[in-house]
What we know:
Two copies of one chain form a homodimer. In chain A, β2 (62-67) and β3 (70-75) form a beta hairpin. In chain A, 39% of the residues are buried. Chain A is mainly alpha-helical. In chain A, α1 (3-13) runs antiparallel to α4 (46-59) and α3 (35-42) packs across α4 (46-59). The first copy, chain A, has helices at 3-13, 16-28, 35-42, 46-59, 77-94, 99-109, 111-117, and strands at 33-34, 62-67, 70-75. The first copy, chain A, contains seven helices and three strands, in the order ααβααββααα. Chain A has a three-stranded antiparallel β-sheet. The longest helix of chain A is centred in the last third of the chain and has 18 residues, at 77-94. Chain A has a single domain (3-117), classed as Winged helix-like DNA-binding domain superfamily/Winged helix DNA-binding domain (Arc Repressor Mutant, subunit A), CATH 1.10.10.10. The termini of chain A are far apart. At the A-B interface, α1, α2, α5, α6 and α7 of A face α1, α2, α5, α6 and α7 of B. The structure holds a DNA duplex.
Amino acid sequence: MNQRQALTSFAALSQETRLQIIRLLVVAGPEGLAAGALAEKLEVSPSNISFHLKELEHSGLIGAQRQSRSIIYTANYESLGGLIRFLMEDCCSGHPEICAPAAVVATCCTPKMEEKLQ
Amino acid sequence: MNQRQALTSFAALSQETRLQIIRLLVVAGPEGLAAGALAEKLEVSPSNISFHLKELEHSGLIGAQRQSRSIIYTANYESLGGLIRFLMEDCCSGHPEICAPAAVVATCCTPKMEEKLQ
DNA sequence: TCAATAATTAAAGGACTATTGAAATATGAA
DNA sequence: TTCATATTTCAATAGTCCTTTAATTATTGA
């Protein structure tokens, strides 16, 4: 993740519909969700969800693949992780105390680490 | 950090000059940097840096305080940490594997955790 | 092939954002 | 007070982004 990618990722996440799409796709997991399902859940028009999905796809935060008549979108976990790292590396280079609270969240996600910290 | 704050934070970070301001302020630490110093480092006009600083201040990612003739800007570590947590909590609710790589960065920032993990 | 479904693309508008240059405000020093 | 410094504010312009509607593409089944 370079600065160029981070900028487009931040731009992608700075719009309400798109941020909600990401949240839904992250929770949906590898099976993803169809464009129509997202439009229905978020109560926006098909063309509008399509517009935002294209923005997110262009940023690399999501991926798409056709499945019959539907197009299934999935969160790109590497890109999302990369963006988090980008933010954290910046703060690490200066003042690690920014990262400390994030580390707490990180440990709650990684059981193996939690065990070691007992 | 709620979704409303996250949206304005992402918008604030989605512009090159503003992202660079944040990076400079994070590295600068609690002493911060004057508006003029930032303008000089980033080679933008005083009025332009002022515009972007106001955007960042409005988002809560930075703070300001006058010191003699200069206005000193500092990174708001709590907001930055909160934004990182916001991104990570979303992924935790779904698929923790996003957080795992971030946790590696987090440990490099928190020496105490690194010791425990030995 | 024809109709239905799922989604995208295109065009037009209105709204917001960024940049520039000039004028205004605030502070400190002579 | 007057001048210089540091920064902000204002107004105008250009550019970008979001939404809407209508038209188009792709796929499936009768």
